[in-house]
Every structure is written in C-alpha cells, then in structure tokens.
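Margin note: ligand = zinc ion.
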Amino acid sequence: MHKNSDEEKHRMETILGQVKDPELISQIEKVVPFHGFLTSGALIGIQMLNIAKRELEVQDGERIYVTCETKSCMPDPFQILAGATIGNNGLKIHNLGKMAVTINKQAPEGVYSIKGLRIILDPEKTKAYPKLHAWYLNTEKFPHVEIVPILLDAGEKVYSWKSVDIEVPVRRKKRIQCCKNCGEMFTQYDNELLCGGCTE
Ligand SMILES: [Zn+2]
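Resulting structure:
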C-alpha cells in the first residue's frame, strides 16, 4: 500500500521530530502502526478529528459517530483515536471520493435529530499552499513526505466546517430470514426473501 524507501522513512522521522504539540505527537504515534505510515490523508483525518472534538465539545471516552466521504486513509484515525469503528457502527464510509467528514455525538434517548459538524479540506484555502493544492487536485504527484509538513504547518487553516442536522436512525427489531434460494441465514432490511448475494 504505502511503500516507502528508507530515505523517505528517515525524512518523515525528521519531519515528525519537529512537531511540538505533545497531543498531536501522541496521536501520530498511535496512527502510524495502525495505518502503516503517516500519509497525508491520515494526517487530514487527525486534524479533522481535532476540529470536531473542540467544536462539538467531545469529552474523553465519549462516543462519536463519523461518516467519512472517502475510503482511503482518512477513516483510520477515527478508528484508532476515537474508537469509531466499522464494527461498532461508529464509522460509516460514504465513498463520494471527497476529503470530507461529518461527525456527531450520541443523541439522547428518544431524540431523532442532532447537530453534527461537516468538515472539508477547502480548495479555496489550500490555494494559499500551492504544493498542497496541486496534490489535492491531483494536478501533480508528490510523496507524502512533501505534503505532511505543509499540513502540519497549515494546521486548521485549510479546513472549513459548518453545523449540519443529522437524522438519528430509528432502531428496528432485528429479523433473520432463511434465503429462499441459497438457504443461508441473513438479516432482513425490508421483507425480502432472498439474501443480498442472491439478488445481485
Ligand atoms: Zn441467498
């Protein structure tokens, strides 16, 4: 996935050695072994998470729900740093190929709409950083070691965010159906009699 030469590894270590914020260092140290390498997208995920934690006043250990609009790199920091995983339904991938996430806290019982925050990597703002902008628009290729320091330097200046209304899904009773075609058990979404594999 993320192949890096020894030289690039060394350059990345030098870059990370210049990070001053101990909280950010600790976050990067957790993301690197989980994701494999500090990619630009993984760092963007970390920075977006930190914006959301502050803006939504997320307490330590509090559950958050994340919808990530790209499947590459960005979802991983939310899994390892915020415990919002695919398996606990804290993380959804809505792969629109966008550098954007929407984050909300858990809604209180009986509440079906909650305020969340949608954060984007803002092309109007990345313009001020030509190399980052070219990477974002893919008009030029750069290794992560060239983009990561720009992101670290820019910090939150390249992001925009706004409050959004989020519909909280109503929990329905789980129903198991035996597929009329293959005979395997599956969870029904509607009243369908064939499993997803047999209707494809
Ligand atoms: Zn089937």
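The chain has eight helices and seven strands.
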